[in-house]
Amino acid sequence: MSAWNPAADQPLTVWRSDPTGDPGDDLLEGIRLLERVRDGGAPATLRLYRPEPTLAFGQRDVRLPGYDDAASSARELGFAPVVRKAGGRAAAYHRGTLIVDHVEPAGQAMAGHQERFRVLGDVYARALGTLGIDARVGEIPGEYCPGEFSVHGMPGPSSVVRSPVKLVGTAQRVVAGAWLFASVFVVEDSAPLRRVLEAVYRDMGLALDPSTAGSAEDLVPGTTVDAVERALLAGYAQHTELMDPGSLGRP
Questions:
Q1: Is 81 within 8 Å of 199 (Cβ atoms)?
Q2: Dihedral of CA 171/65/55/21: which sign?
Q3: 222: which residues sit within 8 A by CB, 6+ positions away?
Q4: Per-residue pLDDT reduced to its tens digit, 195-235
Q5: What is the pLDDT of residues 215-226, one digit of tens each?
Q6: CA dist list (Å): 6 to 41, 86, 108, 191, 202
């Protein structure tokens, strides 16, 4: 299939991977998984992991005059600077976030590129909605690593913020025969993420509204990464079969 059509595609094997202590290698594992799936060495996979503090720069960021200063600022604030192969501008992760690598084989992987953003963004927003979060698909003004199909959340009566915050950033990498849809769910402890994003965007001379850098917990206090993971898997299970959801093995 070109786009994600869960009624026709194969089941997803759920792989919960642990961080290795090398944020760059953890990021590259998604690319290695994409290659294994493309080559038939691994099944369609949903990889979930909680990263060590990481500042993932985009390919365009490294060409900016302020990139070296931004990488230094990230290190000073405890975030390992890495450069990712998929996605746009800089984004920050830590153990309060959940990274999801959805990888599937596809004969015409590029054909469904835009549709996957729309379909999976809706799946993610609906999953967050089951936790009481008013989540919607679409870019909000001034967000970090802006994207048309980002998922954001609107503040409610119990929120500790008063403006929309970005909750899920999504990116894709497509090769002949397979695709990787990579997402970052920001769930807990947004303050250090906001600090490092402010610093690196300032160093690189990029626009950023710091109020967009929030978390699910800011919108619905008490929301945890565990709860988001359960909601996400329940959302996927409404559309496709999940294989071995408790497995810790490497596909």
A1: no
A2: positive
A3: none
A4: 999 999 999 999 999 999 999 999 999 999 999 999 999 99
A5: 999 999 999 999
A6: 21, 23, 16, 37, 41
